Amino acid sequence: MWLQSVLLPLLRLYLCGMKVLFYQMFNRSFTLPVLPKRNGRVAVVTGGTRGMGYETARHLARLGMHVVIAGNEREEGAAAVGRIQEEGVEGKVEFVFLDLTSLKSVRQFAQAFKDRGLPLHVLVNNAGTMMVPERQTEDGFEFHFTLNYLGHFLLTNLLLGTLKRSGQQGCCSRIINMSSATHYSGVVRMDDLNRRICYSSHGAYSQSKLALVLFTYYLQEQLTAGGFPVTVNAVDPGMVDTALYDNLWSIAQALKKPVAKILFRTPAEGASISIYAAAASEMEGVGACYLYNSHKTQSSDSSYDSELQAELWKKSCELVGLQI
Fold this sequence. Notes:
The protein is of the alpha/beta class. It contains 9 helices and 8 strands. Helix 6 links the parallel strand 5 (173-178) and strand 6.
């Protein structure tokens, strides 16, 4: 049990990371093209107070968008807004509290947003965590699963009506889910989504990133079938030097530092793919893609399993209390 549940996920994840580093050794980061102004459009960016989320919020505000940074650190949020405003961006930027590990907080955020009567043209589900020790949220769910996936699942569904009304043919609303190459090593355990039988932080993280890709494809299928002007894409930023790696073991931390300086991407480089998906003209009306380095890439075989997509959707609805 330990070998299958702990050691194998660890080996798979680090093998996946080595493949990504090998790619980044010989391939430069995607360079954003000149993007059109998006004045008047409204975007929500989760985890937008630092790292890639901050860079995404900053760039969208430069394009003239009204950007709502959603995060759980109020002081950090105020500081992020201040730095962006100091640049004299064309758009508006603000911070609103959101704790994605609390279903109550997600519901409060979504309701408060809807009460303002604002449209919503872009939702960037960026916030995430990695390799945290075993812990449960206030709702009793595994931490990676909730913060990376389940909180975003609920948030997206609660704001879906607004996204549908805000989009129009030729100018769709866009949902961007931040996945990772680690999803290739992920296994979604429908009988143990909270990893309580035998915990592995590596397995839990990989599962959450695979869940986001499954969610992306299933939601796009439903939106397309209903004729709604909303697109959903998953993005992969590569290996980026952010605070996500702070939870690595001390030996891994020591090994990571010199490698990161040479091979890891900067937060701005990592954010470029999310920004591209959120604002590029080439992505108009394009959904159900897994984007890496601006290319539409094949995701893992299991991510295309339509039965698994539907099963995860149904179970997720049950967990967060949504009507199917």
